[in-house]
Amino acid sequence: MDNKAKLQRDFFNELAPTWRDGYPISNERIAELLSPIPFSKDKSVLDVACGSGVLDEYLLKVSGKVVAVDVADKMIEKAKADPKNDGVEYHVCDYHEMSGKFDLIIVFDAYPHFVNKESFALKACELLKDDGSVWIVFDDGRKQTDRHHKNLERGLSVPLGTPNEEAEKVAKYLTCVYHIENESYYCLGLKKKN
Fold first, then answer.
1. The whole model's pTM is what?
2. Which of 68, 164, 175, 185 sits in a 20 to 30 Å window from 83, CA-based?
3. Sign of the dihedral defined by the CA atoms of residues 101, 107, 110, 116, in that order
């Protein structure tokens, strides 16, 4: 685990006890946010930077296998403590240390924490099956997301570009297959280049 990952772990471990307590999200809203993603019961999903497992109950319903990873052990403890997440395979580690092959990778509300986009994309290509795709999703617009992430200390995130700008940053490895952005939603779908 590199120094940046250790800083992120410590930062999010501090937040874990009250994470999302002030702004819960319903399964209906999650279904709406993730509606562009081609889920099916024969597909495996990797929930990257899963935090307290806010997506995982829904992911269990729409996919065959759910694996979730977060660098913050306290976040994973919170996710595992929720009985609705039974069946999820959780890993406490840096995303870059993960192994396996997945049909779908989802990064919900966490993409600004991946400062090196090329490194993120290379790892995604390693983890994705040949026809796999990455989905970057936010339950808020870019301006609000950037405002939130600007408040983070110690350089733990970078501003979020438009979907086209973010797709361009990883275009060497991933192809944009879907994008939408408005004041309350942001979604970018990227397919592995073969």
1. 0.90
2. 185
3. positive
